[in-house]
Amino acid sequence: MADYAIYSFEIQEGNRSLFYKNTNTKAIDMANEIVYNVLKSDFIIVGKKKKQDQRLEIRHFIGRGNVFSWDLCNVKDIVIPEGHEKTTAETHPGCYVIVDNRPDVCQIAIEKNGAFGPDTDKVVKYINRTFKGHLEEYGLKIVIKRKYQAKKFKELIRERIVKNNDSVKKVVWEFPNPDKVKGIDATEKMKGRLEGLGLFIQASNILKGKLTLSGLKGDPIDVDDETIEDWAQIIALSAQNSYKLSYYFFNSPMVSFKDVAYAIATIDNKHIRDFEEGYLSNKGEGTTFELIETLNKIRKEIADYDHEKIVDNGE
Question: What is the pTM of this model?
Answer without folding.
Answer: 0.90
